[in-house]
Amino acid sequence: MFIRVKKSKNSPKRSVQIVASYRNEKNQPRQRIVRHMGTAFTEEDVTRLKDLAEFEKAKLEAEITPALFKPEQLAEAAIEARKKIDDEPINVNLKDIKEQARITTGIHEVFGSIYDELGFNNLFDKRKEAARRNLRHITMARLANPVSKRNSVQDLSKDFGISLSLDSVYRMMDGITDDIINKAQNHAHKAAKGLLGDEISLLFYDCTTLYFESFTEDELKKNGYSKDMKFNQPQVVLGLLSTSEGLPVGYEVFPGNQYEGHTLHTVIPKIKEKYNLKRVIFTADSAMLSKANLDYLEEQKVEYIVAARLKSLTDQWKAKITESVAPLRSFDYGKNRRLIVTYSDKLAKKNKHDRDEAIRKLREKLEKSSNPKSLISNYGYKKFMRVTGEVNCEINEEKYAQAAKFDGLHGVITNVKDMDDSAVVEHYKQLWLIEECFRISKHDLKIRPIYHWTPKRIKAHILICFIALTCARNLAYRVRLRFEAMSVARMVNALNHVQLSILWDKKSECKYVLPSKINEDARKLYKTVNLSADTTPYKM
């Protein structure tokens, strides 16, 4: 087999195909398309599709076929019978037919295929089959409808024909060791390398906080600075590593009172030792910016692109970067570092709108408040206030004017030498992909609040969410290359509507399966993982 890029005669589009060579009955050489990977219009898209094609070709050559998910009881029998559909007509009297069950299969078939392919089905030892089964099912439930473990067990029984006991799920979580967590991250990293042609040179890192429905601290749950404004509740800090395509490769969990800038001393050695990458350009937001952190990265011989806190620079630097407005300017920042400052009209309008909106709300508060001094505790307002007496507050117009000088400006600091200013900025802009990972984790997968109390179960819960995130991002990356971009919510919605109705003929006592009509999004997702989406009724 080989990969072919076929050009179109009258347009710039090119098709990427996996092609097999063979000889016909007359021993003449022939070729056939084994798999059409997608259509590209740019060189970058062609490269990505070729990487995906190499990934698929390797599986085909090794005769690796992702196993279909086989739910228990009726669901297992129904899906197993789907493989043996024949052309024999089904003769039934509809008056004798009764629906026995309706089972959602799309999530388990498509995401289950990704889960197995990435190796997550082998995290537990073969002797712990129940734990393997429970981890797989609870991950699928997290993707389909992220709720508590108790409600997930109920959903699996009600919607998927899968019977689990809550106690067995908790036993599985208690059996998740650090070795299993490391193994899962290794699988995620290997999957990302496979999809990206074995080349990962740019890693993004960011932290977020996960709070608990609890007010009790321990060695992991600690009160700290909360990004969810839950300052009175214990939390943990989650640091996530992602490729520039938004594919997760690893994570670390820190105590809730850990300053995220200090997490680098754990993450950088892990990047160097565990991932064995030829070159890493570490990219992070301004929370990682400190003299100590930059010095540490350089000591470790790590290249970086980090957002700069322009308003926190010295007065001399602030005067330099605000003296003129240009789309892109670069400054020598000393120690072989560059400070690159960009300007955007769109960002300037947003900055002004946000500040004016804060001022408007502040004026309303000042007019209504009987004790204006109480507003000083509000960080969003206090930077524009001056206390002139016991309870007299007024807008600090000088501070307002100073803040306006930075409208539209954004800066990054880098030590990368062989990349021009524009390329550095473009690389940094991709940081939104890891922020999107956090949005998916928090909103689509609802990783927080966490309802578990022991460190072992907290880590197990985060692992389940990480596996679900990896499956979701992996599928999203593939479907974008082959068809179009789909959000996680859109993929899940499409697959939750792929169902089977199991019908019972009370006269013949036979069971039949009637697949639901499949929507176009689901059809594309099935095709992306090379599964059939046949809707032909069949006999069990």
UniProtKB/TrEMBL annotation:
GO terms for biological process: DNA transposition. Residues 206-470 form the Transposase IS4-like domain. InterPro entries: IS1634_transpos, RNaseH-like_sf, Transposase_11. Pfam families: DDE_Tnp_1 (PF01609). GO terms for molecular function: DNA binding; transposase activity. NCBIfam families: transpos_IS1634. This is Transposase. It comes from Sedimentisphaera salicampi.
